[in-house]
Amino acid sequence: MGVFFAKEILEAGVQIETRGLAFYQAMAQKAQSESARKLFLELARDEKDHLRSLEELLPHMMDPPDTWEREEFGMYLAELAESHVFGKEEGWKKSQEALETDIQALDLGIRFEKDSVLFMEALSQMARPQEKAVVDKLIQWEKEHLLKLVRAKWQLLGRAR
Q1: Collapsed DSSP state (helix, strand, coil) of residue 127
Q2: How far apart are CA 87 and CA 68, in angstroms?
Q3: 3-state secondary structure the chain
Q4: pTM tops 0.85
Q5: 3-state SS class at 21
Q6: Cβ neighbours around 108 below 10 Å, total
């Protein structure tokens, strides 16, 4: 299909990483256990590294052409982004304020990363073939975070070492 330019997807990735950074920093401050605090700080550092990588990469990516079709693609992208668990700032800020336990914070982090994977995988299917590898890197980052969060949750629940 190849309708999205990687630059458009990476710009959406910047928004996701920025919100992830804010979330993980806030959760590190609220964490009740040392293990959760350390994980949230690690994830925040990862998000900061991801943002730096994206900001270095973006200027080298091809701009999409200025056509009427881009508006439709932009609307589609915006709608997908708003359906993300952290799509609307007021919604995700309320969600994080309501968290009372590390398990709840981990669960919201899991939802965030899972939504990010699904969001990026949907866009990857529509990325231009020559740019798909760049988008797949974003998906890999999100999957790594998802695994770390699931492991931490299971450890806190006593279901994993």
Answers
A1: strand
A2: 25
A3: CCCECHHHHHHHHHHHHHHHHHHHHHHHHHCCCHHHHHHHHHHHHHHHHHHHHHHHHHHHCCCCCCCHHHHHHHHHHHHHHHHCCCCCHHHHHHHHHCCCCHHHHHHHHHHHHHHHHHHHHHHHCCECHHHHHHHHHHHHHHHHHHHHHHHHHHHHCCCCC
A4: yes
A5: helix
A6: 20
Q: What is the largest CA-CA distance in the chain?
A: 55
Which residue is associated with the tokens 């994206």?
Answer: 54
- Within 8 A by CB and 6+ apart from 91, the residues are none
pLDDT tens, position by position, 103-116:
999 999 999 999 89
Contact 31, 102 (CB under 8 A): yes
Alpha-carbon distance 142 to 37, whole Å? 19
The pLDDT tens digits of the residues spanning 38-84 come to: 999 999 999 999 999 999 999 999 988 877 677 777 777 777 777 76
List the domains of the chain with CATH numbers.
6-156 (1.20.1260.10)
- Is 124:136 a contact under the CB 8 Å cutoff? yes
Task: Take residue 111 and report the two structure tokens written for it.
Answer: 């939802």
Of the chain, the end-to-end C-alpha distance in Å amounts to 44
